[in-house]
Amino acid sequence: MTQDERLRSLLLAQQERTRIRVERLAADLDALTSARRGESDDDEHDPEGVTLSSQWSMLAGLLESARDEDRQTEEAMRRLDAGTYGVCVVCGRAIPLAQLEVRPFRDRCVACAERR
Ligand SMILES: [Zn+2]
Fold first, then answer.
1. In the chain, count of helices (H) and strands (E)?
2. Mean pLDDT, residues 41-56 taken together
């Protein structure tokens, strides 16, 4: 297996994991949305209601970041096709392979990512 093939399979595995996460979170969020809708509106101080809405915001945040990761993974696959994968988009230095293995959709080196 060449390094490109290896990276591509890492990206595909990443994409699959991310999509499963997106689906699960979307389903959880749906269930929670129906649960909230089912609550009576005349009891705004219901502690259960507060728990549900903070749970909802947390799930919505997780879903948003999972979708973002999915977009970044797709972007990374395009860069792999274009031959620009593994190069930091900010400083243009090569991103160490070990870092790509942890986060295959990474598009900037650690130094630039921390500066963001
Ligand atoms: Zn950089």
1. 4, 0
2. 72
